[in-house]
């Protein structure tokens, strides 16, 4: 009885519908005698416009709609069908209904197993919506029927109908899966009104366009509107077919290539040894399928794989290409670990791994906070500078643990070849990628914490300057396109958190130093070392020597004895070795006798570790005129420095010995000139300068010494020698001098102060501008020390020599 739709399915608000047509299209003429009441129940539909003469099945789901359909079916089977203005409205009001609709006859009502209702309705006549007379339980309204009117045949109207049939036929022909009889049925429709209504109902266009056609009373204008919509649809179908055909041609090409590849594989299988590398290539391709890398890396992989497939594994180039592909696959392209920017967690990790360092930890937490807020790493690269053994590298490891990143370390000490950073060109025998990419390939992450250890130990020779290569690595504006000679591709290093370590800034290239955010790590005080030993080193060494469960403790006095008499360092490495020696002796004792004393006493230390290596009483032998104690900074921390001055008969000659550098020699000359100029004022006989030969010596002549810090020390030693008065006992000093008699500030104050305390000194002279450095030292570490802050050299002489 019914024929299925011609164009694509459309979605109905209650269900998807399928436009169908009666075999007898003349039913529209018979509807002229149909009696339609002036008041009728309404059925709102979403995304559907019903045209007169067209039959569609719909699934009714809304309660109001089900009740309206049931009542109509029990009565005259007539119902008013209206489209909703807004498809998203679930429970429409009168304002949501279009003003023009179609009176429909319910042909059949079917109850579905799931409780829904399916009805087949046929459009009869258009109507104008009048007054809503009922809203509960469903809409009823007064309606006014709209007459279609007869259309006189004309060349224009006949041309429009011919265009409708022709365009619709073309769309049917270009649309896949279209019923074969569609074109035949379309040609056999003779009723103009039904032809327009039928094609309009089946056309795949906007709801508003269909509603506009339904509301148009003039059949000729309606035909013109339909022709325009058909042309638009035809253009869309043609374009769609063009895109589909192009895709099909591409697929056919790929299938052809696949077929040829399979044939080539079969030929290789037949040849002896022709597919010896097939398994390796297959494995490499399988690994590549899982990679999310840039297109440039994919292209290079494809090119290398093609070369590898054509090569015999015995050829030398095979291993070169294979290793290059292996690096491509091992590099963590866009593979990152999730960051943990919980500052409380970071604080706990840092406190657990490192004692003290409050300001350093605070700086690290500030750095992590910036990373958390910014979400990127375009900020200065951290560089920890300090003496050996104070925990620079382990601080970087703690940062990695704190933020949940992987950790890797690149040792730069002694590296003097630029290729170690940027990689060798793969044409050379034994070529390798640079150390940066090697470590990334090992750690399998694009955003690890990478420690650039001993960056100040980078060298340079005829093979290039690795410091210059590091400029690109550590520049946040450039390292997102770091070029490795071996990889031959740009690699993004911007996600890597670089942390450099160094013992001294002097050896770092200025341009490289400019890219680093310097964080100074000073040496530990004795009190800090005691706490580090108690909390970290002793438990670690006990466990390492099998004494974890043995009751053995070292008192603070014992630890201080070991620190002062058996170590001379800013860090704790030597202390760790001495504690390991203690534990070995205790382990031996426990293994032989089955028990040991639970506490090691201070007097037992010499028995276990041997005679004391260092003494704190050196200053006692220096209580004579002309000898002053200075403070020096070395790469292992601070130290005390003796300046010895001796006068002998001569002609005013100045001799300097002790392997002194130019700056120290100039300081001695400056101090002597100042004394000569102010001899009478100070109380020194001016004639002595012409009658005596002045000899200044700094012991430990094998060790080079330089720097301006010994200026006031040399001045005090000279004044002591010329005046015959001894320097105040337990006094040390450090500061630079000028010919105008001023005292200038110097660096390394914390290390120098801690060295003075280790040596047993009690008073220290410093420039007044160094007072801020003293304020940064924990008060308990300088307890017992008295500081004299001076501005002029006269004040120094007053305190040191009482002149």
TrEMBL record:
<keyword id="KW-0067">ATP-binding</keyword>
<feature type="domain" description="Lon proteolytic">
    <location>
        <begin position="622"/>
        <end position="803"/>
    </location>
</feature>
<feature type="active site">
    <location>
        <position position="752"/>
    </location>
</feature>
<dbReference type="GO" id="GO:0005524">
    <property type="term" value="F:ATP binding"/>
</dbReference>
<dbReference type="InterPro" id="IPR027543">
    <property type="entry name" value="Lon_bac"/>
</dbReference>
<comment type="similarity">
    <text>Belongs to the peptidase S16 family.</text>
</comment>
<dbReference type="InterPro" id="IPR027417">
    <property type="entry name" value="P-loop_NTPase"/>
</dbReference>
<keyword id="KW-0378">Hydrolase</keyword>
<dbReference type="GO" id="GO:0006515">
    <property type="term" value="P:protein quality control for misfolded or incompletely synthesized proteins"/>
</dbReference>
<dbReference type="GO" id="GO:0034605">
    <property type="term" value="P:cellular response to heat"/>
</dbReference>
<dbReference type="Pfam" id="PF00004">
    <property type="entry name" value="AAA"/>
</dbReference>
<dbReference type="GO" id="GO:0016887">
    <property type="term" value="F:ATP hydrolysis activity"/>
</dbReference>
<dbReference type="InterPro" id="IPR003111">
    <property type="entry name" value="Lon_prtase_N"/>
</dbReference>
<dbReference type="InterPro" id="IPR046336">
    <property type="entry name" value="Lon_prtase_N_sf"/>
</dbReference>
<dbReference type="InterPro" id="IPR003593">
    <property type="entry name" value="AAA+_ATPase"/>
</dbReference>
<feature type="domain" description="Lon N-terminal">
    <location>
        <begin position="40"/>
        <end position="234"/>
    </location>
</feature>
<dbReference type="InterPro" id="IPR015947">
    <property type="entry name" value="PUA-like_sf"/>
</dbReference>
<feature type="active site">
    <location>
        <position position="709"/>
    </location>
</feature>
<dbReference type="GO" id="GO:0005737">
    <property type="term" value="C:cytoplasm"/>
</dbReference>
<feature type="binding site">
    <location>
        <begin position="386"/>
        <end position="393"/>
    </location>
    <ligand>
        <name>ATP</name>
    </ligand>
</feature>
<dbReference type="Pfam" id="PF02190">
    <property type="entry name" value="LON_substr_bdg"/>
</dbReference>
<keyword id="KW-0720">Serine protease</keyword>
<protein>
    <recommendedName>
        <fullName>Lon protease</fullName>
        <ecNumber>3.4.21.53</ecNumber>
    </recommendedName>
</protein>
<keyword id="KW-0547">Nucleotide-binding</keyword>
<dbReference type="InterPro" id="IPR020568">
    <property type="entry name" value="Ribosomal_Su5_D2-typ_SF"/>
</dbReference>
<dbReference type="InterPro" id="IPR003959">
    <property type="entry name" value="ATPase_AAA_core"/>
</dbReference>
<dbReference type="InterPro" id="IPR014721">
    <property type="entry name" value="Ribsml_uS5_D2-typ_fold_subgr"/>
</dbReference>
<comment type="subunit">
    <text>Homohexamer. Organized in a ring with a central cavity.</text>
</comment>
<dbReference type="Pfam" id="PF05362">
    <property type="entry name" value="Lon_C"/>
</dbReference>
<dbReference type="GO" id="GO:0004176">
    <property type="term" value="F:ATP-dependent peptidase activity"/>
</dbReference>
<dbReference type="InterPro" id="IPR027065">
    <property type="entry name" value="Lon_Prtase"/>
</dbReference>
<dbReference type="GO" id="GO:0043565">
    <property type="term" value="F:sequence-specific DNA binding"/>
</dbReference>
<keyword id="KW-0963">Cytoplasm</keyword>
<keyword id="KW-0645">Protease</keyword>
<dbReference type="GO" id="GO:0004252">
    <property type="term" value="F:serine-type endopeptidase activity"/>
</dbReference>
<dbReference type="InterPro" id="IPR008268">
    <property type="entry name" value="Peptidase_S16_AS"/>
</dbReference>
<dbReference type="InterPro" id="IPR008269">
    <property type="entry name" value="Lon_proteolytic"/>
</dbReference>
<dbReference type="Pfam" id="PF22667">
    <property type="entry name" value="Lon_lid"/>
</dbReference>
<keyword id="KW-0346">Stress response</keyword>
<comment type="function">
    <text>ATP-dependent serine protease that mediates the selective degradation of mutant and abnormal proteins as well as certain short-lived regulatory proteins. Required for cellular homeostasis and for survival from DNA damage and developmental changes induced by stress. Degrades polypeptides processively to yield small peptide fragments that are 5 to 10 amino acids long. Binds to DNA in a double-stranded, site-specific manner.</text>
</comment>
<dbReference type="InterPro" id="IPR054594">
    <property type="entry name" value="Lon_lid"/>
</dbReference>
<dbReference type="InterPro" id="IPR004815">
    <property type="entry name" value="Lon_bac/euk-typ"/>
</dbReference>
